[in-house]
Design goal:
The complex is a heterotrimer of chains A (632), B (145) and C (283).
Chain A (H helix, E strand, L loop, with lengths): L4 H18 L3 H21 L13 H25 L3 H21 L13 H32 L6 H20 L3 H19 L5 H32 L4 H8 L6 H14 L7 H5 L5 H10 L1 H16 L3 H22 L4 H22 L2 H32 L4 H4 L2 H4 L1 H15 L4 H13 L3 H26 L14 H19 L1 H9 L13 E4 L2 E4 H24 L1 E2 L14 E3 L5 E3 L8 H4 L1 H25 L1
Antiparallel strand pairs in A: 1-2, 4-5
Helix pairs in contact in A: 1-2, 1-6, 2-5, 3-4, 3-7, 4-8, 5-6, 5-12, 5-16, 5-22, 6-7, 7-8, 8-10, 9-13, 10-13, 10-26, 12-16, 13-15, 14-15, 14-21, 14-26, 15-16, 15-21, 16-19, 16-20, 16-22, 19-21, 19-22
Chain B lengths: L2 H12 L2 E6 L5 H10 L11 E2 L8 E5 L2 E2 L3 H10 L5 E5 L1 H5 L9 E3 L9 E3 L6 H18 L1
Parallel strand pairs in B: 1-2, 1-3, 3-5, 5-7
Antiparallel strand pairs in B: 4-6
Helix pairs in contact in B: 1-5, 2-5
Chain C lengths: L1 H34 L9 H10 L4 E2 L3 H21 L4 H21 L3 H32 L19 H14 L28 H22 L7 H19 L5 H24 L1
Helix pairs in contact in C: 1-3, 1-7, 1-8, 2-7, 3-4, 3-7, 4-5, 5-6, 5-9, 6-7, 6-9, 7-8
Classes of the chains: A mainly alpha (632), B alpha/beta (145), C mainly alpha (283).
Amino acid sequence: MSDAIPLVLIIVPFFASLLCLLSRSTVCRSFIVIATAAMLAVSSLLLQGPLAPDAGLQWAGLIDPLIIGGDFLLLAIMFVLGCRYRHLLIVLLTLCQLGLLSFLEFFVFVEEQGHALWQVDGLSLTLVRVVCIVGGFICLHAIPYMQAHENHLLPARSRQPRFFAVLLLFLGAMNGLALTNDLAHFYFFFELTTLCSFLLIGHDRSEEATANALTALWMNGAGGLLLLLAVWGLFRQSAQLDMNGLVAAVAGNQAALLPLTLLMAAAFSKSAQLPWQRWLLGAMVAPAPVSALLHSSTMVKAGVYLALRFAPAFAGTLPARGLILAGGFTFVAAAALAISQRNAKKVLAYSTISNLGLIFACAGIGSPAALAAAVLLIIFHAVSKGLLFLCIGTAEQQVKSRDVEVLRGLCARMPLTGMVAVLAALTLVVPPFGMLLGKWLVFEAAADHFLFYLLLVLGSSLTLLFWVRLAGTLLASGELAGFRPEKQPFLSRFPLVALAGGAVLLALTAPLLHNRLLAPLSAQFAAGGSGVLSTAAGSFPLALLFAVAGCAGLLAMIGVSRAMAGRKGAAYLAGANAGLPGHFVGPMNRPVRAVAENSYLVPLFGEERWNLWVNLAAGGLLLFMLGGALWK
Amino acid sequence: MGFVARLIGKARRSSPWLLHFDCGSCNGCDIEILACLTPVYDLERFGVVNVGNPKHADILLVTGTVNQRNRQVLAVLFEQMAKPGVVVAIGACALSGGVFREAPNVLGGVDRVIPVDVYVPGCPARPEAIIDGVLLALEKFREKE
Amino acid sequence: MEVMLTAGLSLATLPVAILLGGLLSGIDRRLTARLQSRQGPPLSQPFFDVLKLLAKERVVTNPWQAFAPVTALGSAALALVLFAAQGDLLVILFVHLVGGVFLVLGALASGSPYSQIAGQRELWQMFCCETLLFLIAGGLYLSTGSFRVSGATGLPAPLLFRLPLLFAAFVFALTVKMRKSPFDLAGCQHAHQELVRGVYTEYVGPHLGLLEIAHWLEVVLYLAVGSLFWATGWGMVLLPLAAFLAVIVLDNIAARLTWRWMLGRGWGVAFVLAAVNLFWLKG
């Protein structure tokens, strides 16, 4: 039974996607999406590793040709797209891939031995569950969101069928990417997510959307080409495509360093690491569910997944040290650039890039604690960041802006959405929530890497700064009102509330999560049963922190209710309060709103000032990695 | 009176935080108030702190005449003080409008707008008188309990 | 049994720390008065201030002003208890940050322009302190092989000799944390009228009182971190006390500077010093 689940996780979304494309009725489509999301969530929970090595091998003869056909179909589609939009770079990249792929499939991979089809371990299970559960919630949220989106844009013909078809197709592709054990199959799913990303970014068909979608396509296409080169190089070293076997076979092999570094470079482009960040920033033109699903929770995690998968073969080498620095640099630089952003979605995008950089650095360190930290970061980041994107998207539909200053005081206008956004932001920076647990593990793991430790300290301090600023801005209503949730469709509210609850509950069960998912990964790394995570250098008393946080929260809520029963005052405005909240008596006795905007420090942290230098530095670090691989 | 209540009373009398509002004084009284905080008189001996914020103040010191323009501000500042708080009017102008009381825009003393607990006369009021007024205001806390 | 004893002892540090924090604040005010040729308030003054505040009326403009003080106090108290239990310094620093986060959230939520501006500055002050303290934790790890506070105790030679530059960075962080000139940008003790009382402007009565206690505890926590630099004998008390007195003297002889200066010259120099010190340990 369990053997068939991986196949179900991939095939069901593909079929549901087809059905969505065919059905023109909204109710029918909503039903398909809800049913698929529920089925995926349940199946992903039922899936337990490890599977028998021969699980699903009986279908291998059917799957291989299908995937090879799919590969060529995908590249053909990309080629056509490149021609249609007259984008020379895409055409060239696609042609290179087509040539290389034909050569590999027909002349090189033929001598390949059979091997296990699926890979179900802590890492892939984590990714699959994030995709299916978080992704499922995001798909639910997308149903009312896209309805409102079309009511706003009013296209001649509803493009929702296509939207949901691509969304579901993407879920299947991500599941395939996480579960497959065949590097060639991995390449197919990798390219499929690229295409889905292109279609979804360009969904609104505005000029900007199309241009940004093309940027995403060529950057990810370049990543695909690098990946293909890496696959070739790895195959030359050990004559297999079995990912598990490859990691073991090429570990310590100096000649395999170059393809491994190429693999990391491909992962960088997929995860929008500096200097590839432009496509992810551009991708923010897409509707909010796309940003939540592809560009924060799941697709960009494909890159770090690849890096973590091959981290054991990579650890301790010179390029790995380069990877630590490149990841650390991205962590700091993206966080610093986020400080200058007024556009809420761009803040989220930069912070996503920044967090992924941290995960890459963990992959570079490669110690058990670092890998455990990386997995925890993937989980908690996916939940909290996906949630934040949904909140900002929901708010954006109401206030018609993503400017942080326009969203100021959101908690007064949309109490539920606003408070969930604040909670999500807090779960990213405040203990005892999960991100901090992950970050603590990174600190412990990083202490021996002096330069990275400096970057880590800087980056996490900057991260705290812009998250608290964003949360505070959303709260800054300055008015005292009871908490009355705004009206919104059930399918909008349910994912928000469920994910918010999930973010808190997941953090509570972090030690359990850790033991279940990572025990084999980190045998030397003792996780206590008493709610204390311990490493050689320190311990994290999670249960105690949660208990104290719970008590303090309860006491604080009592304080709040007592304060609400007492006198309410207006903010201090030098005594010139004009009666209206936040207004003072100005000239001609007219009320004037007292405005104090956030300091974004654009001259200090602005994109214009830093983009060139940041890209040069990040490019330099990539070259350092490649050079390190060649030189050794 | 229980121990806690007595302790709180003692704390209130030992920690008067002042807000000084100049309603439109000639600055004579204002200078004298600031003189109280200087080393010569050192009001901080009694725990006095000059806070710039009605929300933190226990004692509101008002100088100068109240007029149409600043009556609103005075009322808001008084309202924003957390209870218990006392008001001390300092100088002839704050007491009655002083030499300006006949001016068309002048309302008169501070007590036309907010209730005053202690009146400190003088033009300008001497620092000793102001200190005396503040200490008298502290006794008012006892009455307010 | 031993666990219970440790827990009990650690909890017992809380009242002691509150007393100590209030007393230090009293010493601070008294000393400052003396440096200005005044007599100053009695040493017990801070306790009366807080008691008075706690007994005042609750007034809020936004519920977060009631939420923040409790969390700030809770986080400072927990951080101190963890320190007394000789826990992981990283965890202690993470926990202690929560208080600052909620303090700023409450200030930003109020909608008052003074609190808004001060909240932004407070975030940069937190940034300054946070980075330097985490580097100190890094120094602790590099010299003892552990992030645990217990690693520093029982060393044959004081850490100060291995971490002199980190100690300089610590004094800078302490100045920022104690809200003393030249870095009293976001809410200082005395009425600097430009931002009223900065982040504290909208906290009234009991809420302000709780925040005051939380601030005492934070200062005590910082001094405790300072004591790690000389964790043997009397040095454990004398070194942080010297740092504390130095900060008060600095407060009285320095003018307030802008946040740009704090970030550029103050923090920049301190960060480089700390990094150089870490580099020595590494090399």
